[in-house]
Fold this sequence. Notes:
- This protein is an alpha+beta fold.
- The protein has a domain at about 5-40.
- Helices cover about 55% and strands about 25% of the residues.
- The chain has one helix at about 35-85; strands spanning about 5-10, 15-25, 30-35.
- Strands 1-2-3 form a 3-stranded antiparallel sheet.
- A hairpin with a 2-residue loop joins strand 1 and strand 2.
- The longest helix is centred in the last third of the chain and has 51 residues, at about 35-85.
- The chain is rod-shaped.
Amino acid sequence: MKEKSGWADYEWEGREKHMVFDTVPKTGWVVAMSAYEDDMSHAANLQRNFLAIGGFVGALLLIGIMVVLFGSLLPSLFMAYSILPRCCRW
Length: 90
C-alpha cells in the first residue's frame, strides 16, 4: 500500500466491498478492515422496512380511531349546532 491511511472500494467475488485502513503510529503496522456493501446496509434496509410498515399500520389505526370517534361525536355536534341558534342570540 502506497498510502498509510485511507479507504478503497473494489469488487470481490462479484460483490461490492469497502476497505478502510490506517497506520498504528506506535508499531508502524497498517491495519485494514473490509466489509461487503450489502452486509453493511442490511440493518439499515431492515430498519427502513419496519419503519415503513409501522408508519402504514399506525396511519390505518389513526384513521380507524378518527372514524369511530367522529362517527359517534358528529351526531351530537350537529344536534348541539341546531339547538345553538334557539338558545343563544348573537
